[in-house]
Design a protein that fits this description.
133 residues, alpha+beta, Nuclear Transport Factor 2, Chain: A, 28% helix, DUF4440, DUF4440 domain-containing protein, NTF2-like_dom_sf
Length: 133
């Protein structure tokens, strides 16, 4: 049962990523809980409506957004937590953000048989300078 739920939510996450790339409003609404919040790498928190507005106006435009490797899961009765690395390339308010990797943590809740993302946190992975000799 736990593996089935994990697979179901991972599929929902892949669909959610696709809807962000395609700016698919119907899928966005279906896969994001009303209380959805995204904490982006700058520490800014956007609500579901704010994020959708940024996407539909083009103020946030993903050119690439994809999972890298496996998705780690913690499965509870009505909550599933996903963690994975991804590659991102986007434009924010006209500024190009170059391709980079990030960690994503997403919390899904079961809303009457439908898994919807309630919280997302993205943390950029920085290239550290070489260690001093």
């Amino acid at each position: 049962m736990t593996d089935d739920v994990a697979c179901q939510v991972i599929k929902a996450e892949r669909d959610r990523i696709r809807c962000l790339l395609d700016v698919d409003r119907d899928t966005y609404d279906r896969l994001h809980a009303p209380e959805y919040r995204l904490c982006n790498p700058t520490g800014t928190v956007w609500t579901k409506d704010e994020y959708l507005d940024l996407l539909t106006t083009g103020r946030v435009a993903y050119r690439e957004l994809g999972l890298i490797g496996d998705v780690d899961t913690i499965v509870g009765t009505d909550v599933v937590v996903l963690r994975y690395r991804c590659v991102i390339e986007l434009t924010v308010d006209g500024a190009d953000i170059p391709k980079h990797e990030a960690w994503h943590t997403d919390v899904y809740t079961d809303t009457g048989g439908t898994w919807r993302c309630a919280w997302s946190q993205a943390t950029g992975i920085m290239d550290l300078p070489p260690a001093a000799p």
